[in-house]
Amino acid sequence: MKMQTAKGVSDTPPEEKIIKNQVLNTLTKVFEIYGFAPLETPVIERFETLFAKSGAGEESDALKETFQLTDQGKRKLGLRFEFTTSLARYVAMNSNIKMPFKRYEFGPVFRDGPIKLGRYRQFWQCDADTIGTSSMLADAECVAMLSTAFNKLNFKFEIKINNRKILNGILNQAGIKDQKEALISIDKLDKIGKEGVAKELKERGYNESQIAKLFDLILGKVTITSLKKSLIDEEGIEGLNELEELFSYIKKMGVKEAIFDISLARGQAYYTGTVIEAYLINSKITSSIAGGGRYDDMIGGFMGGNRVVPAVGISFGIAPIMDALKMQQELTTKTPAKVFVLPINALEESLEIVQELRNAGINTDISLGKKGVSNNLQYASSLGIPYVVIFGEKELAQKKVMLRNMETGKETLLTVKEVIKRLTKK
Amino acid sequence: MKMQTAKGVSDTPPEEKIIKNQVLNTLTKVFEIYGFAPLETPVIERFETLFAKSGAGEESDALKETFQLTDQGKRKLGLRFEFTTSLARYVAMNSNIKMPFKRYEFGPVFRDGPIKLGRYRQFWQCDADTIGTSSMLADAECVAMLSTAFNKLNFKFEIKINNRKILNGILNQAGIKDQKEALISIDKLDKIGKEGVAKELKERGYNESQIAKLFDLILGKVTITSLKKSLIDEEGIEGLNELEELFSYIKKMGVKEAIFDISLARGQAYYTGTVIEAYLINSKITSSIAGGGRYDDMIGGFMGGNRVVPAVGISFGIAPIMDALKMQQELTTKTPAKVFVLPINALEESLEIVQELRNAGINTDISLGKKGVSNNLQYASSLGIPYVVIFGEKELAQKKVMLRNMETGKETLLTVKEVIKRLTKK
Questions:
Q1: Are residues A312 and A375 in the same domain?
Q2: pLDDT value, residue B348
Q3: Average pLDDT of B248-270?
Q4: Does the beta-carbon distance from B37 to A44 stay under 8 Å?
Q5: Cα separation of B275 and B130, whole Å?
């Protein structure tokens, strides 16, 4: 029998998982610093829940690409394809939750779709959302978290911000109905340019005058100040005010990477206000590394009735972030072990030394019955362990051990306490 | 539409997830201190893989209780029900892995079985295994990791250890074939006593003389020393030597909680040597909190051919460990936030203060547009946030803020630097 993973899913081997854990730990730290609480929802949801009103965004695609299963009781179930639906279900089920509810969640999500480069059937998402407040301060916290996280990861990045109400206002003012189609075109302005957008809009049936009015408002150097003069539509002005408030907050919060970008629309239909997208600067990775926005109608719609439950959130792309980190550092480390202990005819004595290193908080591996010094050194080297501690009777007689730096090959005779001091220094 | 989770799965709300993360972080730390590397295998496996030779233990039950699904290409898939099968597949697929391969993995596993108290359809497992060495030092590391982990969690516990070869030897010596059935009875000695075991063995067709010989060897105070005199079967003696070696290692490693227990067998058929099980002492939780053992035939069998790939591992029960922690501490904390910032007509100034606290590494929440001091204090209190920082123009004029201890109600006028000093102290 040939051993293989299921199609479209893959293992994360130690050298990659070590980096993934770095990313997840950094993001967790940032979420908690900002007062977001962890929540875990199950991988399996009722099929009905996954396709409840407004839950799925692009519903038909999601439906087709959802892994379906049934339990022994013939109940129809599905594997989650994102977290927002489960979050909405959780909020709907727990009416005693104190609002605003700030939560983060990460883990695997699933889609049974075509497999392309970088598109897997199981992949990780990492979301933070604030439910139950329309305060722009919640939007500002989302932007500030992106800034804090990517600075912690030493990225060069920018955060593009827009507001759907501004875009709606512009489209209203240009006399464009069917705004969903137009938004998809505008979102491509960066990629296909003015001519490309004009062509698409024409194909979609908009006339020259509408397109000209639209371009008047979105082309050139569009700033909050310029829009304040040109935009007269009421919804547009409301969006402009929200955007201005948001920028005043993030400025106070010390965010330096945020810019207003009138062409940012984001695909999903459910956004109602702020939209956010973060990109690396001067990087081979040109896809966004995080994004999000405000979706005030979705959760209430999901819960039924007339409840309005405003919400804003961001989602980090674990795959592109890992790709960026892999470009910064080589994947030579296949273990968290910092030191490998290699006793020569001194196994019993070695165990106390090993535990002393471990008790000092040093990640320590030990030779497990491998024969010979060179075999063991080769093993430690192939795993990328930076130090080896070697000793036999001679060293032990002096109450010392030999510390070998695996990068330089330099060996130093030290007491165990000195080894601990050296390895815990950094 | 009524919102609910799928049957048999549940959400982990913030107050529980905070504790779960504490457990997982502690275990991760211990695994890495012992030089184990993280691996992530997918939730979805090929159905064929899950039921490859020796992969599943109690195969028929596992088969019935495995969630099955198909992808768009009509491939038959399943949700993993444990990690060992995926680990075996990973080792089989990656022939360049350096042995011994020490890895840990945790995450959700699935079973579509009947739901009882504490038995869910999605639950977490947390495993550490060493593949590719028969050194008893690897078994000793497993025991030592249990000891380190449970000491870090402040548990009172004991680790029972036995060796299947000893049990096999005893059964051989008593003339008992069909050892699998007999082992299941012996494993119940603690629960059903001598008479219960005797009754079961009779029902299974063993005669009085066999049962008497068996009881001679396993009843009373059975120690390594006593067995050295009474056990003459070759396999039994081999097991005894392994056990002795294991105990000599863990003693050197400072493990104080391990005891030899001749009645420990563990259910799974695949164990070939050391078996381990950890229990809380003087606790309402009487089920084991971790267990494991050596399974030298399973991975090789899985890979086909005649390869022998020795292996030993342990698995932590996240649910009973969390239950034990919940008995130690109340679940009053619903957020990681340590301080809640409440500005009174001073929103703009507050943002700088909030970021100063966050930059100092303090988990900080801020009032998101909630009106009134008492409303906000109530919110902070209901989430279990221990401190609130309150200030208005009066305090800001003095360049100070009011720090309120939510437990005592005591308020102190401090500079932000003094607040940081106080909150980062512990």
A1: no
A2: 87
A3: 92
A4: no
A5: 14
Residues of A (117-136) whose Cβ lies below 8 Å from B? 121-122, 130, 133-135
Contact B275, B163 (CB under 8 A): yes
Is B257 inside a domain boundary? yes
User: Which of these three, B328, B359, B388, is where a domain ends?
Assistant: B328
Chain A contacts in chain B segment 246-275 (CB below 8 A): 248-249, 252-254
**Confidence band for A426, pLDDT divided at 50, 70 and 90:** low
Q: For the residues B406-423, what does the mean pLDDT come to?
A: 97
CATH number at residue A352: 3.40.50.800
Tell me what pLDDT residue B57 has: 46
- The boundaries of the domain holding residue A407 are 339-423
- Say how far apart CA A423 and CA A412 lie, in whole Å: 13
Given a cut of 70, whether residue A105 has pLDDT beyond it is yes
pLDDT tens digit sequence for A163-190: 999 999 999 999 988 788 888 888 888 8
What's the mean pLDDT in A397-426? Answer: 94
**Two tokens, residue B3:** 């919102």
B199-217 CB burial, b ≥16 within 10 A, e <16: ebbeeeebeeebbebbbeb
Q: Please answer whether residues A265 and A187 qualify as being in contact, where contact means their C-beta atoms are separated by less than 8 angstroms.
A: yes
Tell me if chain A has a CB within 8 Å of the CB of B307: no
> Which residues are CB-neighbours of A174 under 8 A, at least 6 positions away?
A210, A211, A213, A214, A217
Distance CA B77, CA A79 (A): 13
A258 shares its domain with A343: no
| Residue A105 C-alpha, separation from nearest chain B C-alpha, in angstroms | 10
Q: What percent of chain B has pLDDT over 70?
A: 97
On whether both A264 and A285 belong to a single domain, the answer is: yes
Per-residue pLDDT tens for B130-161? 999 999 999 999 999 999 999 999 999 999 99
Residue A25 touches chain B, beta carbons under 8 Å: no
| Cis peptide, bond prior to residue A100, ω within 30 of zero | yes
> Mean pLDDT in chain B?
92
What would the two tokens of residue B185 be?
A: 């009875």
Chain A stretch 327-356, residues whose beta carbon is closer than 8 A to a beta carbon of chain B? 334-337, 340, 347-348, 351-352, 354-355
Q: How far is CA A215 from CA A166, A177, A208, A210, A268, in A?
A: 14, 16, 10, 9, 22
B328, B347, B377 - which closes a domain: B328
| Residues of chain B with C-beta less than 8 angstroms from the C-beta of A141 | 366, 368
Q: Which of B34, B139, B249, B357 to mutate to test the interface with A (most CBs of A within 10 A)?
A: B34
3-state secondary structure of B134: coil
pLDDT at B56: 47
Same domain, A197 and A236: yes
* pLDDT confidence band for B233 (50 / 70 / 90): very high
| A6 neighbourhood in chain B, CB within 8 Å | 42, 44-46, 71, 75, 77
Q: Please tell me the distance in Å from B18's CA to the nearest CA on chain A.
A: 7
A361 CB within 8 Å of a chain B CB: yes
Asked whether the beta carbons of residue A358 and residue B34 sit closer than 8 angstroms, the reply is yes
> Which of A406, A398, A426 lies closest to A365 in space, CA to CA?
A406
Predicted confidence at residue A60, as pLDDT, reads 61
A128 and A275 within one domain: yes
With H, G, I as helix, E, B as strand and everything else as coil, classify residue A88. Answer: helix
Tell me, yes or no, whether B96 and B226 share the same domain. Answer: yes
Please state the rounded mean pLDDT for residues B17-44: 97
User: ipTM of this predicted complex?
Assistant: 0.92
What's residue B60's pLDDT? 61
Residues on chain B touching A35 (C-beta within 8 angstroms)? 335-337, 340, 363-366
Over the stretch A21-75, which tens digit does the pLDDT of each residue have?
Answer: 999 999 999 999 999 999 999 999 999 998 875 444 445 667 789 999 999 999 9
Contact A122 B340 (CB under 8 A): no
